[in-house]
Write a structure and sequence with these properties.
By secondary structure, this protein is an alpha/beta fold. The protein folds into two domains: about 1-10 and about 70-115 and about 125-200, HAD superfamily/HAD-like (Rossmann fold), CATH 3.40.50; about 15-65, thrh gene product, domain 2 (Alpha-Beta Complex), CATH 3.90.1470. It has helices spanning about 15-25, 40-55, 55-65, 75-85, 95-105, 130-140, 155-160, 175-180, 190-200; strands at about 1-5, 85-95, 110-115, 120-125, 145-150, 165-170, 185. A seven-stranded mixed beta sheet has the order 4-3-2-1-5-6-7, sandwiched between helices. Helix 5 (about 95-105) links the parallel strand 2 (about 85-95) and strand 3 (about 110-115). The protein is globular and about 50 Å long. The model has no long low-confidence stretch (mean pLDDT about 95).
Length: about 200
């Protein structure tokens, strides 16, 4: 039995923080896990910038409401879910994910949560588990599943390398160059064919 584990941002939907950076005109918020492998450091950096600019959860959610899945993402996901189980493993937050999951047809997502004050200020974040993507893949394997994993960023490499099959998707050149042993794809039909070849 296979479960396919997919990253969310950069794979199925645009990067939320980049969209928010563009909407607010704050270029510092464009930094993502493609640039900073240390997620804890990255989130603390983001929370400090939000505080400096007096921005809270509502402003981020207003931007998320305008974001659509990447072209072809829902069709890819629908096709993938018709041949096997799929879980989205993301370092995003429950407070961000719901509108995007609705547009993707409500797939299963495991993600983290933000700590938000009564005034709407983002004060902290809670990781579901440490190194959540890798940990989840190992847990699925421990209960008898083979995993296939795909993502685009540094924080996806653990789950990709730990899986029976793993693929980079729409990754930056630097990540592809540093990991020449991992097949890399740019189009959904290529990724779908590679996953189908493993399952079938």
């Amino acid at each position: 039995m296979y479960i396919t584990c997919l990253d969310l941002e950069g794979v199925l939907v645009p990067e939320i923080w980049i969209a928010f950076a563009e909407a607010t005109g704050i270029p510092e918020l464009k930094k993502t896990t493609r640039d900073e492998p240390d997620y804890d450091k990255l989130m603390k950096y983001r929370i400090n910038i939000l505080k400096e600019h007096g921005l809270g959860l509502k402003e981020i959610q207003d931007v998320i409401a305008t974001i659509d899945p990447l072209p072809g993402a829902k069709e890819f996901l629908d096709e993938l879910r018709s041949i096997g189980q799929v879980i989205i493993l993301s370092d995003t937050f429950t407070q961000f994910a719901a509108p995007l999951m609705k547009k993707l047809g409500w797939p299963t997502i495991f993600c983290n949560s933000l700590v938000v004050s009564d005034s709407g200020e983002v004060t902290d974040f809670k990781m579901r588990v440490e190194n959540s993507k890798y940990t989840t893949v190992k847990a699925l394997q421990a209960i008898g599943y083979d995993t296939i994993a795909s993502g685009d960023s540094y924080n996806d490499l653990g789950m990709i390398k730990a899986s029976k099959a793993g693929f980079l998707f729409k990754s930056p050149d630097k990540i592809k160059e540093d990991n020449p042993d991992i097949p890399a794809f740019e189009e959904y039909d290529e990724l779908l064919a590679a996953i189908k070849a493993v399952i079938e």
